[in-house]
Amino acid sequence: MMTMHTDVFDLRKRIYIVTGGAGYLGMKHVEAILEANGRVALFDIDPTVLEKINGLHSKYEKDVKAYVVDITDEKQVTDAVESVMKELGPIYGLINNAANNPKMRETNQKTTGSRLETFSRETWENDLAVGITGAFIMSKIAGREMAKNREGVILNIASDLSVIAPDQRIYRKEGEEKASQLKPVTYSVTKHALIGLTKYLATYWAEEGIRSNALSPGGVYNPNIDPDFMKKLTNLIPMARMAEPDEYKGAVIFLLSDASKYMTGNNLIIDGGRSVW
């Protein structure tokens, strides 16, 4: 009889790169890795990433380094990956988390820029550059290093909007239907594309021992969310609430660890049931 050992969830000092590491959810992914005994390199275009690791150092007392990197710049990514290998060691895993995710407007702000009819090509190209081209570049450069070692894991952070379309009704304000900011087309397109990239990588590098999966979270609660928006959103969720910030840590550890070592090419959807209703 086979028994499950908790050490399959231990990340065993393995080294993981997390893009968008300075962000709200990105920092939670970093914490999850450290809590499971992994080592982390944070990549972010935001220079504050260098300051944010101070709290991680004092809290976890483990190896974590930060790098200011534009993941749409292949030269910067190449240089940063080489620095990680020099300073921490061989790369075992990658979380493609970085994305442009516009915050829904404050109550009194009006804009039509996110509507499809007025959505600019410049914004389209910038959003796709970060969300999908950046993931491609990171996977290409970090993945080829993992392939040399014949082991590794790539985790793409998608969204429940990788499998469903946004319900624009929850973003509209009464009486402002034509002026309301909506979820932009690029967010859905990017997240759907990440699932395609996930499947491609899973088959492309299977013989090199690299697994590739996606995690599709639902909305994550934070205290600054507009109460009216939150009410509309939770009405679409069978569990009738948004996710707490720490509730994806277990899934991240599972997907990065040996606990999921026979899983590849899949999209793990954790959205409180929204996508099945």
UniProtKB/TrEMBL annotation:
One of its GO terms (molecular function) is oxidoreductase activity, acting on the CH-OH group of donors, NAD or NADP as acceptor. Belongs to the short-chain dehydrogenases/reductases (SDR) family. Pfam families: adh_short_C2 (PF13561). InterPro entries: NAD(P)-bd_dom_sf, SDR_fam. It comes from the Bacteria. It comes from Candidatus Zambryskibacteria bacterium RIFCSPLOWO2_01_FULL_43_17. This is Oxidoreductase. Keywords: Oxidoreductase.
